[in-house]
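If you are new to this repository, start here. Below is one unmodified record pulled from the training split, so you can see the exact layout before writing a loader.
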Amino acid sequence: MTDYSWNAYRNLNPVSEVQTYLRNISYSHNELPSVVITGVYDEQTKKAVKEFQKMTGLPETGKVDMKTWNVLVMENEIHEKTTELPYKVPCRSNDFGSITEGYKGDIVYIIKIMLNNFCRKYKNYNKLQINDSCDKETVEAIKQFQKSSMLPVTGIVDKNTWNTMVSIYGTCKLYNY
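And here is the target side for that same chain:
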């Protein structure tokens, strides 16, 4: 996709795009004033462009020439890469099946990692060995999770158990230790 079609897709005029980039970059650089995205090249925008030019060693004209534009785009890309969330791991297709004792697969790694994080937070969970096999210990940990979560205690990770597990894992922010 070319820059032109991307801009059309986002429905930004060139001034709005400059203002968006300046605002994004201001989150990473406190010396750069935040810009309100109006689509109008006003004094606020001109001041922010001058400050950006000063910050990046460009001539401080307050105008977005080709050199300023290129550095602005590059700085915005750096900002986006450093602030984007990590990609999610696709671990299962839409035809989610039940994970039972004896099952082997990548999703078991994820289940065990989540259960081990619950173990770090709550005393009534046993730590599991991380591998791709749903063994007796994993089934017992799943049962404990189901009991604690007021789910039917089956030891099987069905959609309901999976969704509850993922929801609690995300809500607790257990990965922020």
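Two things worth knowing about this chain: The CA atoms of residues 119 and 126 lie 6 Å apart. The mean pLDDT is 85.
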